[in-house]
Structures are given as structure tokens and as C-alpha cells.
Input
Amino acid sequence: MTFDEIRAWLVEANPEKLERLWLSADSLRHDTVGDEVYLRGLVEISNICRRNCLYCGIRAGNPKPQRYRMSAEEMVETARLAKKLGYGTVVLQSGEDGSVSAEEIAEIIRQIKRKTNLAVTLSLGERAEEDYITWFKAGANRYLLRFETSNETLYRAIHPPHAQGRYRSGSRIELLKTLRNIGYEIGSGVMAGIPGQTWDDLARDIALFAELDLDMIGCGPFLPHPDTPLGGVRSQESGVEEQVILDKHLPFKVIALARLVCPAANIPTTTAIATLDPVHGRLLGLSRGANVVMPNLTPACYRKMYEIYPHKAASGETPEETHELAVRQILELGRTPGQGAGTSPRFLKNATQI
Ligand code: 5AD
Output
């Protein structure tokens, strides 16, 4: 798919044509990754963050959220719960918590592996390369790091670097390549509708998914958080010509196009999409190219504190409820909950070639 084709789909408004886009993404999804929908148990292990990303509710500069870090025991217990509920993967996600050492995380990974043998996905932000190596050696399998936007100027404007940060803003794309070389399955993605993001930018983002040959692609709409510098900026008023405008189709266009450019990737229907449309969002994502759901298994007492954007969809009070709803929705669509780790076919193919 060419850049021009991607861009044309992003601005397409004709409902019949869009129906064709949804159908071709769905049928490609069926042919490449099948009808199984993989469940990844998401655990938000800490909302402590040293960064000040202009859009994010848990940025260091926001004094409002009460800060927490789950204990090692709580993390391992939640992984055991994921295992009990039938999950093949646990995702440990946090703010960029610089006060937790690489070794502490490595020990938790080892315990989770020993006690559950689940696939472990990490989403802990930018760290030193040695840390990523330590975690991979401890048994971590996958790393998620969204590059958020491929427009370097916009990236820098919304991601002030940390004073002692090892990685400077703008280098996440290089970092993803490093993570792949270490041996991780790599996942990335962007937000759609960031103030200052143009249609060309978003089309380039999607073309970059293919260039990076991602194993996993997670995307969602930008949702303004009132306690952040971008909270009061309506995208329509960014003053940028060709500004990406968020409408009800946009998140699904991004999912469908991600599927078309990376046919064998694992693509979640994300929480941000479910937040934008709590009734249909998740199901529409799964019908338009996605094959993964990431139910939130974070213990109820911490959930509200992990408010990266407002009204984040919880879809159930307890981890068990959240899980049951996800399974019900998958079955409603005539699909089946995936068994096992759900490693990306792209990764498996490359692994057997080596
Ligand atoms: N709106 C939408 N997505 C957000 N994220 C962070 N803040 C927001 C927001 N205000 C996304 C980022 C990050 C992921 C974990 O959540 O893309 O990578």
C-alpha cells in the first residue's frame, strides 16, 4: 500500500467505500491470524513517572494522581490470577518509574515465569539498553513502546526529555530496533488526533509500521486530559492546516490500515477506543482488523490512579468481571478466545528461519 493510498483512506468519508475498507481488513485478519482473539492481561504496576509528556495524565508535573507502585507479591499474584483465568500473556505496564531498579523488575519476571510460565510483555518506557537486556535474560518476551508520532518536531514538542534521560526525545524508533535486536517481539503505535498532527503525519506513521515490520500495533484516539498542557487544546483549534480531526471512524481506519500494511501483526482493540465508544468500540475494533483484547487486571484499588486520560474504560469492577465481559464479547462475534501465548506469526516465521 502506498503512502498516497493510506492518506486517501484516512480522509475517506464515503460510507460504502469505508465498508469496503472494514471488510478487506477483516478478511485479511481472518486469513492471516485467524478467528482466535488473544487476551492479554494488563497490569498497571506503577503510575510513578519521571517524564512530562504533554498529553498524559500521569506525567510527573501533575500533582493530582496519588502515586503507587504495586509490591512484587501483588504483581506475581495478579499474574497468577491471569493464569487462572486462562490467559497466555501478562502485560506489565507503568509510567517511566526511574526509581525501580532493573534487577527488581528482573526478579519479578523470573518469579512470574517460574510460577505461571506466561508470556511476559513489558511496557515500562525508555530505559538503558542494559536494563532491556537484563529483562530479556530474565524471561521477558515482548516490549511495547509507542513512537506516538513519526513527526519528529511534533514528537519533541510533546515529549520533553528527562534531564538525566539516557534516551533523547525522538529516538524511540531507534530504540525499537534495539529491542528487536535483543530478541524481543516489538510493539508500537501512535495516538490519532494529537493537536498539531497532520494527515500526512498519520499516513507516514502507518507506513512506518510496515517499515519497522512490527509484531504488535496498538493505536487509539488522543483523548484530552484536563490536568495536562494539552488538556484544553481542541485539535480542531490547533491552528495547524491539515490537522487530523478525530471522528467516529478514525480509530478504526487506523486499525484497518495497520492490518493491511502489517498483515500478520497482533493488533489490539485498545482501551482508548473503548473509552471513546463504550458500547461498540471494542467490538468494532475486532470487526475491522484487530485480533487482541487487553482486559485490565489491575487490582481495583489502583485502577483509578492510573488515569492517563479521563474516564478510562474499566469494563468491569473486578478483574474477574472485566475478564468475563471480554470473553462474552468475543463469543458474541462468533470468534474464540485464543489459547496459549499468541506469539505473532511474523515473529514465529522469522524465528524458524534462523
Ligand atoms: N489520550 C490517548 N492516549 C494516551 N496515552 C497517554 N495519554 C493519552 C491520552 N491523553 C497513550 C500513549 C501511551 C499509551 C500507554 O497511552 O499512546 O503510549
